[in-house]
Amino acid sequence: MDYVILDGQILDRNKAKVDIEDRGYQFGDGIYEVIRVYNSTFFTADEHLTRLFQSAEKIGMTLPYTLEELKNLLASLVKRNNINDGTIYLQFSRGVAARQHHYPDKDVKPAFTAYTKEIERPKDKLKKGVHAKLVEDVRWLRCDIKSLNLLGNIMAKQEASEAGCFEAILHRGSTVTEGSSSNMFIVKDGIIKTHPATNLILNGITRRVIMDICKEQNITIKEEEFNIEELLAADEIFLASTTSEVMPIVKVIGESFETEEPGEITRKLQAGFEKKIALQCGE
Length: 283
Ligand code: PSZ
What we know:
2 domains; binds ligand PSZ
């Protein structure tokens, strides 16, 4: 049996129904998070939930839970569904109200849903690397909010996918911002660069874990803009996300960047990431 959370209650997936005037459904008016579970244990849950509260605040939504309450509730779902390696997806929409653009009255409570999924780590891809395609970043200017509105992201991913690629590398003009569902990193002469955590990207939790690893291992990482030219001239490219971890990019299709195999720094970070997982989740 698969259980889900609907407004704070754990219930059968089949019994969970969402109102058609839910503002998440009608406007994409809400926020979400995806948290990784390794060995039946959350990885960086506090960081994800802190970001969730920050996203909520940025769109003027008050969540009817504390971080600890929310984490406990999510943990009970993970336990109930017997998730060993997987993810939990959670979202808060601004609630159910007759359709009008303005925010509803204060008495309308955010609608909370969550579900789990058992997934394996992408071991083969982590080892061999993936291909990516450059796609213009046409999203709005608040990419720092983990909003339910993902049209710009999904259209970019679709374009990459149709070209046989794992990810789209988004660029605004000549500046590389991030992936359609990941952060983007280049390595040149042993130095890593990634876009600064501005309104133009989501400040990824995996990105922050990578920055911690760099500090611990004395690898220089600069939160600095880089352009397409630098991307294509890089020694290594990798992306990072909750489910993709530290994922090597070995080819940018239709462009000059192509490497035989994942680079040395990428490998080091992957090893560092393994240690972080082992430390937190005991795997
Ligand atoms: O399972 C999946 O497909 C997931 S789980 C998380 C993501 C995809 N992507 C998160 C994300 C993102 O959507 C954008 C636009 N930028 C960066 C990231 C990476 O964020 P973290 O590391 O917090 O997952």
